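step=encode ok
step=design start
structure_in=
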């Protein structure tokens, strides 16, 4: 049975935002009571660099990168970069994905083992997953599983796969988290549709994933103009997760970013 305590919320941003925007937003999110701050990773905008700005502006909030693809990052390089940037490993959640490397299971199993060998023991390792085998692998090996682009019923099913993997491995279940896209403005439905449209064709895995969902464009996430409506939308996702990560859809300016952070705050 799920605990009655509120589901924690994290906030996720796009890597490469200007450092002053990142730091100001981090300070505000720590004040608002967010559980964690997350950055994605882009080829031209390293997620760990953005995480370092988040870390420098805050004292307690946890920090995650979701995710570093192992076709671009070797585990030893990840460990070296964390040390170079001076990020406290006790606050870290390091998310990894298979990228374009196959077979996914073997690649990620090796990557987790190598990260365990190179990182301080307090660093949490997260596996990105969308399908049953990767969810079960995350349950068996990782400290967290990061889901993405799923509706609440799908999240609940994916969480069951994670729990099955943990049970089979004889270990406690990891944290199950997911990005949930959130747009807040009069034009928020269109912003969500635009973001979803981009991901629907970003690669073959996403094409298959969205085809299987068979839902109208703009169905996955929350688009609203008021805080009560945002919280109402997020509540549908919270029931299936241990951690909801509000993935900000907004213009890259302080007013727009803070508006989403405030509307979706815990």
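sequence_out=
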């Amino acid at each position: 049975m799920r605990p009655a305590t509120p589901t924690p919320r994290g906030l996720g941003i796009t890597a490469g935002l200007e450092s002053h925007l990142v730091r100001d937003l981090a300070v505000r999110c720590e004040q608002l009571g967010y559980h964690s701050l997350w950055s994605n990773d882009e080829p031209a905008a390293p997620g760990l660099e953005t995480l370092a700005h988040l870390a420098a502006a805050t004292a307690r909030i946890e920090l995650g990168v979701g995710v570093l693809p192992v076709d671009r990052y070797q585990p030893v390089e990840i460990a070296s970069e964390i040390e170079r940037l001076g990020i406290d490993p006790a606050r870290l959640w390091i998310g990894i994905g298979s990228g374009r490397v196959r077979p996914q299971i073997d690649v990620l199993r090796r990557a987790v083992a190598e990260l365990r060998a190179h990182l301080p023991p307090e660093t949490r390792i997260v596996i990105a997953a969308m399908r049953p085998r990767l969810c079960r692998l995350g349950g068996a090996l990782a400290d967290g599983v990061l889901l993405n682009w799923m509706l609440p019923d799908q999240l609940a099913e994916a969480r069951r796969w994670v729990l099955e993997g943990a049970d089979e491995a004889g270990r406690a279940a990891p944290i199950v988290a997911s990005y949930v896209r959130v747009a807040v403005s009069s034009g928020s439905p269109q912003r969500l549709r635009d973001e979803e449209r981009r991901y629907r064709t970003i690669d073959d895995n996403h094409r298959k994933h969205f085809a299987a969902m068979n839902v109208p464009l703009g169905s996955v996430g929350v688009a609203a103009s008021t805080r009560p409506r945002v919280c109402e939308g997020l509540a549908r996702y919270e029931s299936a997760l241990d951690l909801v990560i509000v993935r900000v859809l907004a213009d890259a300016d302080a007013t727009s970013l803070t508006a989403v952070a405030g509307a979706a705050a815990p």
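step=design ok
step=annotate ok -> The first helix runs from residue 19 to 32.
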